[in-house]
Amino acid sequence: PLANWNGDEMPLDQVRVSVLDRAFLFGDAVYEAIRVYSGRAWLLGEHLQRLRHSLKEVQIVADVDRLHERLARTLANSDVQEGVIYIQVTRGEAPRRHAFPKEPVTPNELIYIKEVEPSPTAAGEPRPGMRVVTFPDWRWKRCDIKSTNLLANCIAAEHAEVNGCDEAILVHHDGSVSEGSRSSLFAVRAGALLTAPADESILPGITRQLVFRLADRIGLRVIEEAVRHETLTQLDELFLTGTTTEVAGIIDVDGRPIGDGTTGPVTAALQDAHHRAVQ
Ligand code: PDD
């Protein structure tokens, strides 16, 4: 993959960074992942806005407009048509102490573009339904910040993988199901969409927000109310959304089928609307 490291273009495997970078020592960094369709960065403005929010909340000062220019240049030079752009901004390198460095530090800014297989919906095929497991939401209380501190997400994703599943959905101690380890969660109940409110306990997904607009277009009501763990398998449909997940039906939770065990009609309609939107 082609990278842009602090403004210089180079192959990703040639980027070198100090072990004193605070991202390495503390997970002190924020990031974004952006899908590229037909050579264009999809919903780029929304992603850069969320990056600004993450940077502000963790008090890292970086020039997002400059990152935008670098991204556009590197994307064009990469020639990638179907891909994912990864952007990460770290607080920078400094001797290890918890409080922020008092000497001025320069954030380390990484962008790289990875090629991906075109999504199955682009070939006119349905996306395969996903099997998921539930796992406790061990994350901190500011999940609205897209931080690289992802250990709780990684442990949940690993739990899914070793159980032969595609994703883990995270259960809060109050019994609400917040989102996936790397995706947003929706349910269909009595013809309306249900999804957790975008407070500080979830990442405000860009695809989640797009699904709100798509739902509006096809006349579906969206209720911002978290799905409850105990009623999960009684819902008509469940699906996940995300930059790389797109819109994916959930067919099974913890070994129990959802609906008739295939992607439901409302999910399929939204998948179709999503596919048309990204054209
Ligand atoms: N993950 N929730 C979490 C915890 C996520 O990490 C993500 C994205 C989402 C979906 O957000 P969006 O629609 O903006 O991609 C929800 C990215 C893809 C990642 O970590 O690579």
Kindly describe this structure:
This is D-alanine aminotransferase. Keywords: Aminotransferase, Pyridoxal phosphate, Transferase. InterPro entries: Aminotrans_IV (IPR001544), Aminotransferase-like (IPR036038), BCAT-like_C (IPR043132), BCAT-like_N (IPR043131), Class-IV_PLP-Dep_Aminotrnsfr (IPR050571). Belongs to the class-IV pyridoxal-phosphate-dependent aminotransferase family. Its EC number is 2.6.1.21. The chain has 279 residues and is of the alpha+beta class. The protein folds into 2 domains: 2-118, Aminotransferase class 4, branched-chain amino acid transferase, N-terminal domain (D-amino Acid Aminotransferase, Chain A, domain 1, 2-Layer Sandwich), CATH 3.30.470.10; 123-277, D-amino Acid Aminotransferase, Chain A, domain 2. 25% of the residues lie in helices and 29% in strands. It has 6 helices and 16 strands. It has helices spanning 22-26, 44-57, 64-78, 151-162, 206-217, 265-277; strands at residues 2-5, 8-11, 29-37, 40-41, 83-90, 109-115, 130-136, 167-171, 176-180, 184-189, 192-195, 222-224, 227-228, 237-242, 246-253, 256-257. Strands 7, 8, 9, 10, 11, 12, 13, 14, 15 and 16 form a 10-stranded mixed sheet that branches. The longest helix is centred in the first third of the chain and has 15 residues, at 64-78. The protein is globular, with a radius of gyration of 19 Å. The two termini are 24 Å apart. The model has no long low-confidence stretch (mean pLDDT 97). The site of N-(5'-phosphopyridoxyl)-D-alanine (PDD) has 14 residues, from helix 5 and strand 14.
